[in-house]
Amino acid sequence: MTALPSLAVVGSINVDSVLRVPELPAPGETVLATQRRTFLGGKGANQAVAAARLGAAVTMIGAVGADPDGAFAVEQLRLVGVRTELVTRTSAAPTGTAAITVDAAGENAIAVFPGANDLVGVPGALPESDVLLCQLEVDPAVVDEVVVRSRAFVAINAAPARRLAQATLDRADLLVVNELEWAALPDLARCRRVVVTAGSSGASVFEHGRLVVHVPSVRAEVRNTVGAGDAFTAAVTIGFAAGLSAEDALATAAHVGAAAVAHEASQPDLEPFTSYRSRAAIAARTAV
Known about the structure:
9-stranded mixed beta sheet, 8 helices
């Protein structure tokens, strides 16, 4: 194994408006923000950007509106090297948006308007890639179809928790969920491999419902938890697809997640981990 696997990412693309506040407002309360910034967001785009910044070749499959937010989103994807020829520009809906408030401890509250993400369809031909990575901020029926059609290593971030066809779950090589999604989707216990994240408690791998490895979290100064799970998902998917052991894949992803929470943006630079190839080279020991 001399190169990272290439990825096709099917998922959401949003433009995030992030407000920094001293504390999250209670119901009916107004608080004054100290800062407002705009970032590219959405689980699909977050994971595509993280994978590209970790050194993988990435193609994004999604939809944005024919509006300034859509132009901004596509340009941001291109700036990090993500291919965007399969990102649809539609006049039928505006680009998806998210209003995010982040407090001094890095905790957040998010309201999302899906917009064009509800119109993401299945491309006529899937791009040739080593990995297909999906999330559930688009129509689950689209995920069901692309997964069954794909010949690649299939990873699904089952977030938000939504039902997928049994054929999709059977086909998936890897599912990634947090502990709440794990509890809400009992069918996942039958899947061949599931990574369950638990924030500061670390992450675990289950195979057919059996715990096989757990790794602790990596301590970091928390500035923003938005997008940290997406950075982790991209990293752990690359790790497993590259042939790392479960322990090595989780440990590397834990460091990437820690780098993400220490960054203000939903799509952190991940500069300390642009040498991910050197970590993935562990897999070369078993390459034929």
